[in-house]
């Protein structure tokens, strides 16, 4: 019997948090954000987008392919590498998108609360940076076991893109049961650093 490829995504709960409108700040941030995204080589994959939303694309590393089985209003793109399957689990990167408060810190805090809920811990330390001129955070945490899939570490990149009177928050979750595999680490770095956003 052939090994089944399983794709598991950490779905971020939608939390009802209020925030100041911050409309003017959001418009200024959008105007100031540059299109100077990091260079990306090779094929680019566009995440699904709703009408009027920014366009987000990611590089497709060698050996990786798309998996559309979980695409939805929340999950916009998933890529997997069947060749790196271990414990009947294919390493994957899942991109989600959702409307968020205009205030970027409030938008990130909402995502962080959801991640801490999934991880069952509040001991998550994000590192702040920028992707395409937009505020971004990266962090790591452990995903709980899911059926036959064991506990596994996940690396997450959150990008908050001001858009009209709100933000669109993109969350990229990379997970593998063998995360120390150099091929997996290189692919995640290629995907995370090579994000292209057109607003």
Written overview of the protein:
With 199 residues, this protein is of the alpha+beta class. 19% of the residues lie in helices and 33% in strands. A hairpin with a 2-residue loop joins strand 8 and strand 9 (166-175). The longest helix is centred in the middle third of the chain and has 16 residues, at 104-119. 37% of the residues are buried. Residues 1-34 have low confidence and may be disordered.
How many individual β-strands?
Answer: 10
Q: Could you tell me the mean pLDDT?
A: 80
Could you give a short account of the major beta sheet?
7 strands, antiparallel
Strand order, largest beta sheet: 3-4-5-9-8-7-6
Which key phrases capture this entry?
10 strands; alpha+beta; disordered N terminus; seven-stranded antiparallel sheet
Please give the structural blueprint.
Blueprint: H1 23-32, E1 44-46, E2 55-59, E3 65-66, E4 75-80, E5 92-100, H2 104-119, E6 127-131, E7 134-143, E8 152-163, E9 166-175, H3 182-193, E10 196-198
Antiparallel strand pairs: 1-2, 2-10, 3-4, 4-5, 5-9, 6-7, 7-8, 8-9
In a nutshell, what does this entry contain?
The chain is an alpha+beta fold and 199 residues long. It is built from 3 helices and 10 strands.
